[in-house]
Amino acid sequence: MAPKKIKARPSAGANPNIPGISPTAQLPSISPLSLLIWLYILRLYNALNIETFFQPDEYFQALEPAWAAAFGENSGAWITWEWREHLRSSLHPLLFTGVYKVAGSYCNALDLPAEVRSKILLAAPKVLQAVFAACTDLFTYLLAGKMYGRQSPEATAALMLTILSPWQWFCSGRTFSNCLETTLTVAALVLWPWDWFVHGVDSKKRDDNAVEGSQRHDLPFRLYPSLALAALACILRPTNPIIWIALTGTLTWNRFVQPAVIPKLLVSAAITGSVVLTFSIAADRAFYGELVLPPLKFLQFNVGQGLAGFYGVNRLAYYFTEGIGLLLISALPFALLELYYGLRLRDDRQPGTPRVRSLRSILAYTVLIDILALSLISHKEVRFIYPLLPILHVLAARPAAAFFHPTAIQAQKYRGMLFTLGFALNLIVAQYSTGRHQRGVMDVMHYLRKEYEVRYQPPGPNHGNMTVGFLMPCHSTPWISHFIHPEINAWALTCEPPLGLSGEQRRDYLDEADVFYADPAKWMQTNMADVGRRGAAVGRSSKRAWPQYVAFFQQLEATMKSVLEGSEYKECWRGFNTHWHDDWRRKGDVVVWCRGRQW
């Protein structure tokens, strides 16, 4: 992992007392722009080759509203209840709206065939998302440069950790708001004026007079773009302020901020935040057609009404026992070691220069406070702590660079073996998570879209709209972002939350998917028309007509055979989905049965 030595020059984080860290190691100089281009090529390849499903928000909180804004309300987008209740900021989907409009105009101008147009519209959001993913990698490297020196082996290690991170390969190319939140957060941390705050700690003994003297001057200019990016992250994800409260609280508690400076910081944050909030309100006004404040609505729903737990409740210690491990995989031991050092504030025997020790302590406490605060929310997901991953990679970089330095590997051969095993583990996890686990629910969308393009568009054998029903847990697949064609008339089970109900009513509440899986056969008898007829029977118009294509998980296959026995339905497609799943309803292959299909 260490680069070729070019010139003797001590790095900011080098410590001659730690075996394996060479104070003379230096990287070949490369401009951030050049590095960004290479990282973008890498992440574009990454994004275009993600073939698996993770969470519905990747589509229903980004691409579905973006599609509707780009192509109109009748374009087939599924707008979920969060958008009807104004819980989400429009800033994130509007980015993809622009991409969709450009891609759609390009296809129309060239009068491209339906198949080609589909491929372009499928790829368009990934092309933009790769920019955010590459920026996350770049800013992780630059943040490490702020701490250790840009040409230090530690900065190189941080870059390698983020490039080889299985979580980055799995998640950074997906259109989650958490991904953009992570990019904005680490960019804000890079622009944060660290030297202004930790001035005077490079000497053996902390010089409080030097800190106070440096802060007699006006606030550094780059603080303002840092605050602006942080404010944008907070608008996107209303839990992001916890990171900045933790950061500024740690700086203040450890006397890196003089009392006289605090009012200036608060005023600057208020002014910058107000400008960003005004911009956000204007965008939401145009998007929703009325004056709304999504971050406030988000907190009111998730915290005030306590409805976040409707979509799952996790153990209090989930982030500590599982979350951090899933984020870091093979980098976990190095990050834990550095967090341990960072949380021991008063130990001058810690490795690194006084400045590195100070920054390590600030970042370690920021991570700890953020995770503790998020642990108090009942609904937990690993992606909620994703913005901490760049910080954790920067912290893990020092012990990783020391452990895998060529000198250390030559002295202890097992370290080279561990590097190979770690690299192989990352590669296997990244490949399995992006190419294998839960790919069936993506493949079925490609199958159905191609069925429409081949069979329902001239000169195909069928005419009219294609009908599809999904008897799966709600939001098990993407929607119009992968159907592409609004002429595909599809429906799926829903899972609307218990809005406006009392606490007692919420306890007994079952959404449509819950009712279905409580007794699938009864639900189909009650809610579906006569299976022997292609349309709803006369006098039973309130029931759904059986569609031409029915998609479901293998777990439901025995029930479907019982209910549809003797009907025209036949299996027409089956695709592998997963070897295992923690939701029993989603186990096995994805299966499609067809009726009225000209084989």
From TrEMBL:
One of its GO terms (molecular function) is alpha-1,2-mannosyltransferase activity. It is a multi-pass membrane protein. Pathway: Glycolipid biosynthesis; glycosylphosphatidylinositol-anchor biosynthesis. Its main location: endoplasmic reticulum. The keyword Disulfide bond does not apply. InterPro entries: GPI_mannosylTrfase. Its EC number is 2.4.1.-. This is Mannosyltransferase. It comes from Neohortaea acidophila.
